[in-house]
Amino acid sequence: MRRKPLIIIRLFAALATGAAFFAGANPALAQAPYPAKPVHIIVAFAPGGFADGIARMFGQKLGDRLGQTFVVENRGGAGGNIAARQVAAAGPDGYTLLAHTAAISINASLYRNPGFDLLADFAPVANTGSTPGLLAVHPSNPANNLQDLIRLYKGRRLTYSTAGVGTSSHLAADYLFKSLAGLDAVHVPYQGGAPAITAAVANQVDVISGSMPPVLPFVKQGRLKALSISSLKRAAALPDVATVTEAGFADFEERSWVGFFAPAKTDAEIVRKLNGEINQILALPDIRERLAGLGLEPSPGSPAEFTEYIKKEVAKWAKIVKATGVSAE
């Protein structure tokens, strides 16, 4: 009878040893499923902008689906480079993500040293959606399309506003107006899309060059007149507005997009999980409706496909940066 407690003690000891062995053989068994704590999404621009709106939309959905809070934080400055540096230096555990736009692919050549290597310091997770650039003027402007605008301003100075130096809207307009159309175009940069649009609505500049989401409501309200979009095909949100290609500039395309990135060396399983969730969110009817209302086309795909897209974007913008001579430094 005295031996029974000893047997029980040895049995529990054996079970504990076995559990420790299996946990050591597979550390995932000893860890809670991802995400086990709040995830921080660092947005590369100020609150209220294009990237911020998309990050909050998807952050809320991710939180609902994964049962953890996705905290959105804004770290504007240096064309989005400050936020990118912060995330590049974060631990590769999936708890710090970056929400950035096409600007991150531009900055690779626009800045001599952006403080990170886009293709080496990040693991692309997923693209959400993209939208073409939109050129619009005050309703009193006699131009009704891009060809009219070019004819009207031949031999005259044209001013155009954008959300800032080095943005895709700036580089695309500079390349189009100066390099391709041969106009005397003067860039009027603002700190964000809202003041750039306000300047056009107030007729303080001749043209606004911006992404479609923030400009579209003013076109719908009749406070701005859309002249052209920089996609390869017409947009469903503005079916009567011709493309830049239709105006005679073949294959001209400038699209803004919002994508999610993790620090390099983040576990591939975490990247795949986030990618799968974002793709499923993109398929939700309410999300598709909201994106369509903004003039955004969903961009589902794998991490590998997003990586290849980024490589093409980096190469495209490097050529345009070189052609325009624009520099942020």
Question: What layout of secondary structure does this protein have?
Answer:
Layout: H1 3-25, E1 39-43, H2 50-66, E2 70-74, H3 81-88, E3 96-101, H4 103-110, H5 118-121, E4 122-137, H6 146-153, E5 157-162, H7 168-180, E6 184-189, H8 193-201, E7 207-211, H9 212-220, E8 225-229, E9 255-263, H10 268-282, H11 285-293, E10 297-298, H12 303-324
Parallel strand pairs: 1-2, 1-3, 5-6, 5-7
Antiparallel strand pairs: 3-9, 4-7, 4-8, 4-9, 4-10
Helix pairs in contact: 2-10, 4-12, 7-12
Q: List SSEs in N-to-C order.
A: HEHEHEHHEHEHEHEHEEHHEH
Largest sheet: 10 strands, mixed
Classify the fold: give the CATH topology of the largest domain: D-Maltodextrin-Binding Protein, domain 2
Distance between the termini: 85 Å
How many distinct domains?
2
Q: How would you describe the shape?
A: globular
Proportion in helices:
40-55%
